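dude i think i finally got it to work??
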Amino acid sequence: MSGATRARALTADVVASRYGALDATSCKAELEKRHVPFAPVDAARGVRAPIRLTGKIHGVLFRTELNATARAVSPYEIVDCRLALALDDMTRFFPRYGIVEVRHFSMYRPPSKHWKAGQEAKRHPGGLAIDIGRMKLSDGRWLEVERDFHGRIGGTTCGMNATLVQPTEDTMRLRTLVCELAEAGLFHFMLTPSYNWPHRNHLHLEVAAKFSGQMIR
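look at this
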């Protein structure tokens, strides 16, 4: 993958596009088939198929920094089923990186209270994006996006011309993971610290309901 702002066309059978097109019933059936632990959410404004993850996915815990009591009711822990499928796929890359836990800032962020009932939203208001701040390794250390990514705004994220400022072993671990996920087509949008200042401390990974390309910045 070359170019921090590269967008490329995806074929109809790319993973993210298949997931984005699923209806709620089909998506939840696929989660059950995969034995992903989840509980349906009665309603979440703007979300097609809202759920909460209730356990680890392939041994990996996805959670916010909130305590257990707050997490159980936090809207930030709600996720659209279609993004959950992409997260399930993502965990299959984790064993060779030693990743056992993912801490995120949010997945769902409720749209305005004036949002039209029954209207689906995009990105976080639709529960279709996750902002990952850090990932725990099996040795107890953490990969911190803000500390370890070493990007530069406008720089290249992946490929031979990738922009690396003072790269470390953990930088290479984090960058390689991001670029492998990009090549796998699990997400339509992948925004990193190389995108802009607001993304300096997290990876934004997103599935879109209707999108025929992929953007990695």
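The chain is about 25% helix and 20% strand.
im so relieved honestly
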